[in-house]
Amino acid sequence: MRGWSDVFRKELKEFVRDKRVLYSAVLGPLVLEVFIILLFGYLSTSFTKDFAHKVVVENSRHAEPFLSAMVESKKFEIVELTPGMSAEEALAQKMGRLAISFPENFQELLEAGQSPEVRVTYDPNEETALISLAAVKEVYSSFASKYSIERMTELNIDARTLLPFVLVEDKLPVEKPFAGAWLVGFLPYLIVIWAFYGGFSIVGDLVAGEKERGSLETLLITPVSRQAIAFGKFCALGSVSLASCISALAGVLIMGVAPIPMTQRLFESGLSLSPASMFAIAVTIIPLVMFFAGILLAVSTFARNQREVQSYLSLLSFVVLIPAIFSQIIGYTDIAGKAWVNFIPILNSASVMRDALLNRVDWTSLGMTSAVSVVLAIGGLWLAVKLFTKEKVLMRV
Question: Measured between alpha carbons, how far is 238 from 297 in angstroms, rounded to an integer?
């Protein structure tokens, strides 16, 4: 195996000189991670932003308690109904999404312990009206609960005696996750993808490209054995794929510390990661990268030219994408806790990384997943070296 380090340095020098490697394998993951987090930040802000529900109110001066609860929720814009105008006319003129009509004696009835009728008028065909109605009902539910407790206290009635049971929340003492829930579910997928696609753009030129250019023969007549040449190319390819993963993680860290209001919600838990979690991620990524490097090198060695490499890799990418995509939703199912997940390549790595990002390391799962990845990595390297030593495979064009 002497001479493999020379081949390794040779390939890395060529990669560095090739701007495609810089753009696709190094800068690509960094820029894409920044873009994805900005997109997630925008979506998160859009979905969670409290929009003001414009509501027309009739006899608002008689409904101070309930309207105060609506104002305190900061979800409503209250518009007084024009005297002489009906609720239907106000909605027809788009004065609000819905109209609430309080009786003139609302306050007196409420203080007397009676239940006055409050009418809500809306168009059932308008989605915005239904959304506003749900917001009004939410405030009403909270107001009614608070009012009922106050009334029972005045009457010396223990509210707990009217409940079937009391529900007490007891949260487990867990570590804070890395970033927020959005990123914890998506990051393992991105890491797996870049572990594969980091070397995707350069592998075609690694062996098949040299066949086309006729430079492979020059390399083969050197004193370096074919096994050492294959191992050197394998290490170079693995280094580029690992650099892509690191670049992707760097993009996340940059966005985590950047003072961008739109994305701060995604990092609500900070960027805390325990030493055990960092170790688990490293132990998971490295053999996964080695596995992908071995398979990619074997494909490049077997193919006659770069076009054939791209055809094979297009099919192979589906094998990688399916478990990687499934890893995004596995955390929302009971499957994540099944032992057989540890034996499914790619899916097991994403699952372990997800747990690590939650600062929760299952050492048994980590050991089994790493063992599977190491076995596959050795198998991929063995296959690449085997093909590299076969004359009929290596010399065909």
Answer: 10
